[in-house]
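Fold Annotation — chain and its backbone

Fields — amino acid sequence, structure tokens

___
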Amino acid sequence: MQFDYRHFHIDCRARHAEDGCYYARARITRAARRNEALLTHDSGDIDSFASEADALCCARSWAIEWCDVAADQAETVR
């Protein structure tokens, strides 16, 4: 599942492991601003779920929260 939120692009995935669980994961990318490098953040495994849909829902919620915090911190720095 890919979508844009605020000024971030989010790619949510569910990794299916050998144990049968689905692990929620997210990659968040912010386009480079003037004189800045491209910002990319990989969540790693967030949590495990019995279904792919639940894992994707978790990854989406986690990514939105991460983006909100990152955007608030960027506003504070300015």
Remarks:
- The first helix runs from residue 52 to 77.
- The chain has a mean pLDDT of 90.
- The chain is about 35% helix and 35% strand.
